[in-house]
From TrEMBL, chain A:
GO terms for biological process: response to oxidative stress. The keyword Iron does not apply. Residues 474-568 form the Pyruvate:ferredoxin oxidoreductase core domain. InterPro entries: 2-oxoacid/accept_OxRdtase_asu, PFOR_II, Pyruvate:ferred/Flavod_OxRd, Pyrv/ketoisovalerate_OxRed_cat, Pyrv_Fd/Flavodoxin_OxRdtase_N, Pyrv_flavodox_OxRed_cen, THDP-binding, Transketo_C/PFOR_II. Residues 212-449 form the Pyruvate flavodoxin/ferredoxin oxidoreductase pyrimidine binding domain. GO terms for molecular function: oxidoreductase activity, acting on the aldehyde or oxo group of donors. PANTHER family: 2-OXOGLUTARATE OXIDOREDUCTASE SUBUNIT KORA (PTHR32154:SF20), PYRUVATE-FLAVODOXIN OXIDOREDUCTASE-RELATED (PTHR32154). This is 2-oxoacid:ferredoxin oxidoreductase subunit alpha. Keywords: Oxidoreductase. Residues 14-178 form the Pyruvate/ketoisovalerate oxidoreductase catalytic domain. It holds the Pfam family POR_N. It comes from the Bacteria.
Length: 577, 280
C-alpha cells in the first residue's frame, strides 16, 4: 500500500445503515485533511439486497473510485463472496465470525482477515444490531492508522442533538478500535495524517447542484421524486426554512415543469430536477419554454433506461435525446458537469444563462455524479446576482399591449411580469406576434423563429474553455463528457507513473457544441478515444456530426457501472497506437 | 389587413363563450382589484382562445397544464389574482391529475370550466362530461364511458368553493365569478355552456327544462353532505353555490412566504456559508 491513499469499502444488506456508515468514514477521512471520493452501490429496494459503500481517500486530489481495496468490511456472507476480485495479498478483511457462523478459510480470500464480533460488541455497549457498523468503523480507524478522536467528533456533529445516540455510537467505535488493536492486527501503513482541516467539504454532485442553484439565486424549486435526482429535492426542502426559497413536491413531472414555467412567468428563478423517465414527461414543457421564451432550468440525472431501466445505477445514454428533445427547434444550453466543483459552478451558471437568454437550460448529471461524494473547496460562500431581461418600467404600444416579443438585435426582448402596470401582454405556447397574440402568417412566424435563433450566436460566445490536460509527446487523447472526467483523470495518474503520455478533453458544455476546441483536441495526438457510458457512442457521433471527424477508438460502458481507472489503463495498454 | 388589439372573438354564433367572456370581464372589474394584478391562464380549446380577446396579463399554456402553471405563478407572487380559463377536456381529461391535486392543496386559484360536454375546437369528439351513449365523431356507436361528475368530485375532495352556473345568465354568472375570485383558496365554477354546432341536443331549451336554482331548493352551501346530494341528482341540474368553507390557502401555509411574495425576495446577495458548514 502506498503512503498517499487508501481505499476502504463496507458491504452488507441494504437497510442496515451502510450509507450512514460510509458518510461517517468519508467525513472522518476528510477531516484528516485528505481528499476523498466516495461511491455507493445499492439496489432499488429498501431492505435486503447487496449494498456497498466505498471511500477512496488520499493526500492528493482523488478523482474517482478504484477497484483495489486496502480494507473490506464484510457485514455478511455475500460481502465475502462478491468482492474477491477487489482484494490482493496486502488487503485486510474485517468480518464477524460469530454473527453469521462464518468459516473464513472456505472463501480462500487473498490478504489477511480479522474477526471482529461486531454485533456482540455493539450489544455489550448497549447498542442495537445496526450499531455493529460503528464497531466496524472503529476497527477500520485503527487498522488504517487514523485518529479515533476525529471519528468521535464526526459522530457528534452528524447526530447533533441526539445525545444518547452519539454516546452509543462513540462507545461502539471505541469497542471496535480496542478489540482489533488487542487482536494483534497491525495498522496498514496508510497516508500520513495531514493537519486536520475544515476546508474540504465532502459533497455529492446533487448537493453541489443544489448549492450552486441557491448561489445562483434559485427562488422556486419544484420536483417529483425520481432516483437519482431526489436528493436535490430533499436537500432544498430540508434547508428551505433557512434559504426562504419555495420548494414544492408536485403531483407529477408534467406538473413540476409547468409550475416552474408559471413561476418563471411571474418573475422568479425556477428549477426542476428528474431522471430520464421523468424528463420524458417534461419534454412538452421544454418546448413551451423554447417558444414562450421563459427561463427554465431542468436537471436531468441519468440512469440506465429506457423506461424504468436500472433505477439506482449510472449511465450517460440520454445525450442525444436531450439535444433533440421536443418537436420543432429552439435554442437551448446543455451542460454536463464533470465533478462536484463543476456541478456547483454550472448549476449557478444555468440559472443566470436561462434568465439572460430566456431559454431552457438542461444540466445533465448521472447517478455516478449525483450520488458520489467529492471533496469540494469553495473559496467563498457569498455570491452576487444581477437580474437580466426585465423591463422595470414597461410602456404599452399604441395598441395598449406591451411588445414582450419585440424583435431585437440580439433576439432577447425584455419581459414584463404580471403586477406591473403597462406591461400587459400574452406569454404563449402558440406561435405569436410581438405582443404574444396568436399569429399564423408567414411574416410573424418567420420573424419569431429567426428572433429565437438570433440568440445562438451570443450563446456560443458563452462557451468557456473545456477541461483540457496535455503531456508532451502524447500519442493518445481521451475525449469524454460529464462524470467520466473523474475515472479518466485517475487513470492518467497511473498512466503517468507508467510513463504513458496522454491528453484529455472533458466536455461540460455539450450544447451549443464547443466545436473548435473539440476539433483541435482530437487532432492534438496521433490517436483519440471517446470514453462514454452508452452503447452507440453518442458523444462520438455528435463529434462527427459537428466536426466531420470520425473517432474510431471507443471505450463504452452500458452495464450501469461507472468506468474504473484500472479498466481505462488496461484499455490504453492494449491499444496499438 | 390591419390587426386590432385585442382580437375579435372567433367563436361561432350562439357560442356560450361570449356570455362567459362578458361575465368574466365584469366579474373581474367588480372586484375593484387593479387590472394588472390579474394573471389569466388559458388552456387549449375554444375557451382558451379567449387569450387573444382579453386585455390582462395572460399565459396561453399547454393542454391540461393551465392548472399547474397557474399554481406556479401564484406561489411566485401570491398578490396576483389567478384565474384559469379551461374547458371540460382540459380540466377533467388531460389535466385531471392537476384538477384533483389543486383542490387538495386549496391553491388560491379560480377555475372557470367552460363545460360544453364536447371537444369543440377539434370538431366535436366526446369529452369527459359527455353523457354515456352519445354518438360523436370519435364514438359513432355511442360513448361507452359514464360522464364525469366534477361537482361531486370537488365536494368529495376538499374543494372550498364549488359552484355551477349556466353561461347565458350573465348577471348571475358575473356575481358568481366575483365571489369566486374573492374566495381565498381553490374555487371552481363549472359553467354549463351550449355548443350549438357540436352539441345541439343540449340546447338552451334543453337546459331551461333541466336547470334548477339551488337557492330555490332551499340549499345552504355549508354542508358537504347536502351539497353532494344535490350534485348527484338526475331529475334536475342544479346551478348555484353548492359549497363554500373558509380554510387557509396553500400559499398561506408555506412558511417561506410569510414575509411576502417570493418575487420580491432579493437574490442580490446569497450567503451559503451556513449551509456549507454542515458538509464538513
Amino acid at each position: 500500500m502506498d503512503r498517499d491513499s487508501l481505499n476502504w469499502k463496507v458491504a452488507g444488506y441494504a437497510g442496515e445503515g451502510i450509507m450512514t456508515t460510509g458518510l461517517l468514514f468519508s467525513k472522518t477521512a476528510s477531516r484528516h485533511g485528505w481528499y476523498i471520493f466516495d461511491y455507493p452501490e445499492y439496489p432499488s429496494l429498501i431492505r435486503g439486497g447487496h449494498n456497498t459503500y466505498q471511500v477512496h481517500a488520499g493526500k492528493n486530489h482523488i478523482h474517482s473510485q478504484k477497484i483495489a481495496l486496502n480494507l473490506l468490511v464484510a457485514l455478511n456472507r455475500d460481502a465475502l463472496e462478491f468482492h474477491r476480485d477487489e482484494l490482493d495479498e496486502n488487503s485486510l478483511i474485517i468480518y464477524d465470525q460469530e454473527d453469521d457462523n462464518i468459516d473464513i478459510e472456505k472463501y480462500n480470500l487473498p490478504g489477511k482477515s480479522a474477526n471482529l464480533p461486531m454485533i456482540r460488541l455493539a450489544s455489550e455497549v448497549g447498542g442495537e444490531r445496526v450499531m455493529g457498523n460503528n464497531v466496524a468503523l472503529g476497527a477500520s480507524i485503527f487498522a488504517l492508522g487514523l485518529d479515533l478522536g476525529i471519528l468521535d467528533q464526526v459522530i457528534a456533529d452528524v447526530f447533533a442533538g441526539k445525545k444518547e445516540i452519539i454516546n452509543l455510537n462513540q462507545k461502539a467505535a471505541k469497542a471496535g478500535y480496542d478489540y482489533i488493536q488487542k487482536s494483534g492486527v497491525r495498522p496498514l501503513i496508510g497516508v500520513e495524517p495531514l493537519k486536520p482541516t475544515a476546508d474540504l467539504a465532502p459533497m455529492t454532485g446533487n448537493e453541489a447542484i443544489a448549492l450552486g442553484a441557491l448561489a445562483g439565486g434559485l427562488q422556486f424549486y419544484v420536483a417529483y421524486p425520481m432516483t437519482p435526482s431526489s436528493s436535490i429535492l430533499h436537500f432544498l426542502a430540508e434547508t428551505a426554512r433557512m434559504t426562504k426559497i419555495v420548494v414544492k413536491h408536485a403531483e407529477d413531472e408534467i406538473s413540476a415543469a409547468n409550475m416552474a414555467l408559471g413561476a418563471s412567468f411571474a418573475g422568479v428563478r425556477s428549477m426542476v430536477a428528474t431522471s430520464g423517465g421523468g424528463f420524458c414527461y417534461m419534454v412538452e414543457a421544454l418546448g413551451e419554454s423554447g417558444v414562450s421564451e421563459l427561463p427554465l432550468v431542468i436537471v436531468e440525472s441519468m440512469r440506465p433506461g429506457p423506461a424504468l431501466g436500472m433505477p439506482t445505477w449510472t449511465a450517460q445514454s440520454d445525450l442525444k435525446f436531450l439535444i433533440n428533445a421536443s418537436h420543432d427547434e429552439f435554442p437551448r444550453f446543455i451542460f454536463a458537469p464533470g465533478d462536484a466543483q463543476e456541478a456547483f459552478e454550472l448549476s449557478k451558471k444555468a440559472l443566470v444563462l436561462a434568465e439572460t437568454y430566456q431559454v431552457p437550460v438542461i444540466l445533465l448529471s448521472d447517478k455516478y455524479l449525483s450520488e458520489s461524494r467529492y471533496s469540494l473547496k469553495l473559496p467563498e460562500t457569498v455570491f452576487k446576482n444581477n437580474r437580466f431581461g426585465f423591463e422595470n418600467n414597461p410602456k404599452p404600444d399604441t395598441n395598449s399591449f406591451y411588445p414582450r416579443y419585440r424583435l431585437t438585435e440580439t433576439g432577447v426582448s425584455e419581459r414584463s411580469v404580471p403586477g406591473q402596470s403597462g406591461g400587459i401582454h400574452i406569454t404563449t405556447s402558440y406561435e405569436h406576434d410581438e405582443y404574444g397574440f396568436t399569429a399564423e402568417d408567414t411574416n410573424a412566424r418567420k420573424s419569431q423563429v429567426e428572433k429565437r435563433f438570433k440568440k445562438i450566436e451570443s450563446m456560443k460566445q458563452e462557451i468557456p474553455s473545456q477541461f483540457w490536460e496535455e503531456e508532451p509527446q502524447a500519442k493518445l487523447t481521451f475525449i469524454s463528457f460529464g462524470s467520466t472526467k473523474g475515472p479518466i483523470r485517475q487513470a492518467r495518474e497511473e498512466l503517468k507513473r507508467q510513463r504513458v503520455a496522454t491528453n484529455m478533453l472533458n466536455l461540460s458544455w455539450l450544447w451549443p457544441f464547443p466545436k473548435d476546441q473539440v476539433k483541435k483536441s482530437v487532432e492534438s495526438s496521433k490517436s483519440a478515444v471517446v470514453v462514454e457510458g452508452n452503447y452507440q457512442g453518442q458523444l462520438a457521433s455528435l463529434i462527427t456530426q459537428e466536426t466531420g471527424i470520425v473517432v474510431k477508438n471507443r471505450l463504452n460502458r452500458y452495464d450501469g457501472r461507472p468506468f474504473y481507472p484500472e479498466e481505462i489503463v488496461n484499455y490504453v495498454k492494449n491499444l496499438s497506437i | 389587413m390591419l390587426k386590432t388589439y385585442p382580437f375579435n372573438p372567433t367563436w361561432c354564433p350562439g357560442c356560450g363563450n361570449f356570455a362567459i367572456w362578458a361575465s368574466l370581464k365584469q366579474g373581474i372589474a367588480d372586484t375593484k382589484y387593479p387590472k394588472e394584478k390579474f394573471a389569466l391562464f388559458y388552456d387549449v380549446g375554444c375557451s382558451g382562445d379567449m387569450a387573444d380577446f382579453n386585455q390582462y396579463y395572460g399565459f396561453h399554456t399547454l393542454h391540461g397544464r393551465a392548472l399547474p402553471t397557474a399554481v406556479g405563478a401564484k406561489l411566485a407572487n401570491h398578490e396576483l389574482k389567478v384565474i384559469v380559463i379551461i374547458g371540460d377536456g382540459g380540466c377533467y381529461g388531460e389535466g385531471g391529475t392537476h384538477f384533483l391535486n389543486l383542490m387538495r392543496g386549496n391553491h388560491d386559484v379560480t377555475l372557470l370550466v367552460h363545460d360544453n360536454h364536447r371537444y369543440s375546437l377539434t370538431t366535436g369528439q366526446m369529452s369527459p362530461t359527455t353523457e354515456k351513449g352519445t354518438k360523436t365523431k370519435s364514438t359513432p356507436e355511442g360513448s361507452i364511458e359514464e360522464a364525469l361528475n366534477p361537482i361531486a368530485i370537488a365536494i368529495s375532495n376538499h374543494a372550498t368553493f364549488i359552484a355551477r352556473e349556466f353561461a347565458p345568465d350573465i348577471p348571475r354568472l358575473t356575481q358568481r365569478i366575483t365571489q369566486a375570485i374573492n374566495h381565498t383558496g381553490f374555487s371552481i365554477i363549472d359553467i354549463l355552456q351550449p355548443c350549438p354546432i357540436f352539441n345541439p341536443k343540449q340546447s338552451h331549451e334543453w337546459y331551461r327544462q333541466m336547470l334548477v336554482k339551488l337557492e330555490d331548493e332551499n340549499h345552504k352551501p355549508n354542508s358537504r353532505e347536502d351539497a353532494w346530494k344535490q350534485s348527484v341528482r338526475i331529475d334536475k341540474l342544479p346551478i348555484g353555490l353548492f359549497f363554500q368553507e373558509t380554510k387557509p390557502a396553500y400559499h398561506e401555509q408555506v412558511s417561506e412566504l410569510k414575509e411576502g411574495p417570493l418575487v420580491n425576495k432579493s437574490i442580490e446577495t446569497i450567503d451559503i456559508g451556513n449551509l456549507i458548514k454542515n458538509f464538513r
